[in-house]
Amino acid sequence: MKTVGIIVNPASGKDIRRLVAFGSVVPNSEKVNMVRRILLGLDSMGIEEVFLMPENAGIGSLALDRLKVGMKVSFLDMRLENTQDDSTRAAKIMTEMGVACIVTLGGDGTNRVVSKGSGDTPLLSVATGTNNAFCYMVEGTLAGIAAGVVALNNFPLDILTRKAPRLEIWKEDRLLDIALVDVVTSSAEFVASRAVWDESTLREVFLTQSEPGNIGFSSLGGYICRLPSDSGKALHIIVGKGGQKVRAPIAPGLVRWVPISSHRVFEPDSPIFLTHLPCIIALDGEREINVMENERVSVRLTLNGPRVLDLTQTLRHASAECVFLEDQTGG
After folding, report:
1. pLDDT (tens digit, 9 = 90+) per residue, 237-293?
2. Where are the domains of the chain?
3. What secondary structure letter does DSSP report for 96?
4. CATH classification code of 4-164+306-320
5. Which of 49, 209, 297, 306 is 20 to 30 A distant from 73 in Cα terms?
6. Neighbour tally for 310: CB within 10 Å
7. Does domain 166-302 have CATH number 2.60.200?
8. Cβ distance 181 to 134 under 8 Å?
9. Please, which residues have CB within 8 angstroms of residue 119's CB and are 6 or more apart in sequence?
10. What pLDDT shows up at residue 282?
11. CB-count exposure of residue 277 (10 Å: 0-12, 13-18, 19+)
12. pLDDT of amino acid 13
């Protein structure tokens, strides 16, 4: 039997898009209840130990208050810096400890930083963010049960999981950072509140998936050229005059016309250099990198991103293998 890790981002679902758009607020009280349900799902499967990432909002401690479970629940012994790097370090520690699965509560940005430390450990991503193209909208109890299935059984990971694609940002021969869903360049002068919502500042968009059913910049691509996340390809969009306009929900409640100059599908390991410089690069919805006019920065697609647990496939496979049945015949 293996252990399971849980990483909660207290800041997810609370960024400025609640002010400039109409994104749903996911309060910490709901995250507490979600963690409780995940823990109860894990406990129902007979998991013996779970590790939580500590965080200053106290979500994990509140979830454990008066919660009756038979398993041991411990907090990682790690120093908090109150930055996104906490989640990366927590994922790395959990992976080194050999957890069977890491359950995350957050949005695309949360999973981006977790994936930088998770290695080949499967991620089960429960959506509590603004843009949730990478995550599951799933009941926490089911997430706990599915994670328990992985920890308790030696099912082949290739049956229960898939390798997600990712976009890599390179400066010359140095990897700067990664994104799981979208890389967006903006003419905005500052990182500021991080989120990108002003379509007039958009310059280039790179997508590992473009789906018309998504919220965010992946919907912009979905209305031009649909690419599912398992297509093995990515989409590059240049924003500007000369082509057509696309009406897309770039944030919850924020539907905007975006002029598209051109777009093209590109293959893995085919670097595309940024042409609209200087700029700020946003990764999965958050501005992170300043690029100067004389810098050579490229975006590349790789198919060797984080390992992602398929919740539905996991539960179906466990059911077919009679994981949820008990023999009462005494035989």
Report:
1. 999 988 899 999 988 888 999 999 999 999 998 999 999 999 999 999 888 899 999
2. 4-164+306-320, 166-302
3. H
4. 3.40.50.10330
5. 306
6. 17
7. yes
8. yes
9. 92, 95
10. 92
11. middle
12. 46
